[in-house]
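seq as requested:
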Amino acid sequence: MNPFFETNQDILNEYIGLKSNDHPQFYKFWKPHLRKSGFYSFLSGEESYLDFQNRLENLADIPLGFSLALASMVEVNVVASVLDKSIIPRAKEILEAIKHSDLVVGMGVSEPGFEGKLKNLSSKLENGKLTGIKSYITNGGEADIVLWVLPKGGFYPVYAVNLGTQQTNQKKTLIETEFAKEVTHLKLEVLEFSINNEDLVLEDYGNLGIILRLKELLSLVSLLLGKTKPLLEDSEKLTRVWNTLKDWKTNFLNDWGTSVVESELKNGFPYPIEDLLSALAKHFGLNNIHDLSKIDPDYQLFLWDDAFTKYLKMKKNKNL
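struct tokens:
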């Protein structure tokens, strides 16, 4: 059994019981137990980034753990990274709460018509009132706060939207996905939601999206290693390819210490997962890697066919 869940067997039984009664929370339920296990130590500089990636890998080898790894990865790699870039006290306050409390914070960037380009954002903040739609917020169904990126005077400031207030000014729509089914995703619409200067957490999101997406993609290497680990007993070929990717990840991250080396993050992309995906396809008797999602919808996360990742690949190829 997965070591984290084996250690927390009583908690797992409690969660299964709550889920059978349509208990809506997932990440918020598990977060205090992750924190107790040291899962967020990287954010406090107590562990290396490689240690954090190995925690993701070790968590992801069962379906429940895979969902939990995805949910925590987004908060650590995306939300915490945005807050860590800021010198604004409100940002530091929220970051400390992420590290040391059960607060759940989601990231609101994409909007209808966004297509990966900040210039297409249409949220408006006028006279202290925010109106707009965020179309896909991971962990949004459980979030206490959403970090909202909006266009303003040629910049893209980020504001903390407290979902515990002004309920009548919010419209929430839960989004179901075939992959990592336990994770909650949210479409959120706000209408004349009161925002003040104290809610600002970052003055300009700018080009931060590229780094955040690369951190997500690198973490998906760890999730892929974790997800496929239980299959290794059945195939020597799969084991060899898996070990090659595992060694690459270890060597790539070994010298980073407690920070993310952004230049290396860029230089290392695209991350070499295709050999393992191809080996998996052959293992399951499939003709190509896109058919892996027929075996398990979670494999959709590793196909990297979204427009933004294709743009990153094109950008990297141009620079070669």
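The mean pLDDT is 94.
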